[in-house]
Structure prediction request, 672 residues.
Amino acid sequence: MAGPVSQSLHLPIGPYTEAWQEIDGLLDEMANLARSPVEVPAFYGALLDGLLRALKADGGAVWQIVPAMPVARVAQAGAAPAISDEMVRWVEGWRLAGEIAESCLVLPPHSTSERSAVPNPSNRPLILRPVQCEESATYLLAVALDAAAPRAADSAAAQVLNLFCETAAEFHQRRELQERRRLHTNLREFDQLVARLHANLDLDKTAYALANDGRLWIGCDRLSVGLIHGQSVRVRAISGSDQVDRRSQQVGSLEDLLAAVAASGEPLHWPGESKGGELPPQLDTPLQAYLDLAHARRLIVAPLRAQAAAESRQDAGPPIGVLLAETFDDVQSTERLRQRVDDVVRHGGAALANSIAFHELPLRPLQAGMAQLLRSLRRRPVPALMAAVCAAAVAAALAFIPAEFSVPALGTLQPEGRRHLFAPASGVVERVAVAHGQRVAPGDELLRIRDPELDLDYSRTSGELQTHQARLASIRARRSTRSTATDPQQEDRQLAAEEEQLKQQLSSLAAQLELLERRHAELVVTSPITGIVLTWNPEELLRDRPVREGQMLMTVADPAGPWILELRVPDTDIGPLLAAQRQGPSELPVTFLLETEPAATYRGRIAKVAEASDSAGGASPSVLVTVQLESQTPASARAGAGVVARIHCGPKSIGYVWLHDLIDAVRTQLLF
Prediction:
């Protein structure tokens, strides 16, 4: 707003006072309200309230005037004046003359048609101000001023009214701009919907596009599409569902309802102008059965025709499908819902008809391939013929030229004399007697394990043995001395029985002690072969560490003996290897190189193939293949060195050698 009112307008009501401050504040409020998403009656109601406060007027009203339509009152406040035919004619005249933008008419009280174009029979001055928002609609603001106010203030009131009406004009301009943007967005979305409906001739894809994209355009909660098959309807797509469960009771009831509407040939709106009880039984029975399962608040069922835009039903042809739109609330207006459903029906029927016609073509895949080939031949016949001859020659070469087929494998180089040592019992490693790379002989101590529970059992058993031995010596001493008891023979028999019992207990404790000593001796782990310790830094790895029974502790190998390869062949490659063993010798040749020495190639032969696959280290299933070296042991051989090997399986066609991975993928992924 351009500055204070009293500075921009020369009004005869004094300088910039508190009244003008209030008017400025009211205008700011109206400007903010005009920018908000408020409806027309609410806006004009607030505008009238602010205007009456600013002008200290008695009342006011706002009417909507549309040619050839009844005048509609939009808002009123206070002692609202009545509208007359002269007011309407004056507004229409000014609208046609194009002078409405700055028109404000002041009507004195008790004026007649002879003195003014618009009579005012009331005893209060009236100010009229039209606001045009569209080409056909005009809003007329009428304010009844205080009859006791001086007439000199009427012009100032008219100018204040002009300021408020400028805000109203801005409000309508914003609404028209928003409406045009909404229409533009709707047109763009509808264009995208039509493009998606006609983008594909596949029947299922078209049905799912109609269900899902159509639901978005209509704004309903669920949209179902059914195709007519004879006298029945089969649900082809439901929005939000990848598949249709035909065993579902709700789907069965839905198909019955769609079949009934298809038989009638007319759309069904529920609830509509007629209540459900007035529907024919052929429609009312399946409708009520489906509503009991779906619990929809509103639904529209419409037949789909190939030419839904035709003027008559005969021109549009028989229904080819049925569309069902459902809502579970009453947010969207029924009229808008019907219009959107009509839009989808009009274009969805044509898209489905095209897809059905394409789907029913005989030998459709063969025809599509032949058509593509014929188009290529017609465009370039000579190059196409040459390409066919070259392709045939390449195929023959791939099928008949032999080449060596080999299976790749990864593995390690290991001494054949190798032993893994495991913990004989659970405990704590008390002593490690060897280091990495140290040479050992059979029986050499490698480490010692201490079992606290075993030590406790040994101490307890040894103590009980000593206690029983002392008790036995005491009994024997008593029997050898003269007894002073009343019945010496009875006492001697008791001591003899106790002595015999102690002897049996001593025998049992001695056996237990011997067993504990053997178990204690087993806690000393010794080397089973001559070789070197392969485990890295066993002192730091095992000393004072708890171990479990069966846990691997060390590895000892003899590098002076023969060496072998341990290869891991994936399950996907083991088939050709086994086939080559069945057709020829089982000791297939192997060539390999060390990852530490890739320049040298060595040879060997398969010694053994494992009978079962396993997943070592969590990898894909593979088969362990052991290879015996034929050539001299590599000078740089180290236990566990990585090798890259190829197992030679004999000659195959060069096409299979080059493309066997692709052939296997086609067999497993496409043909299976």
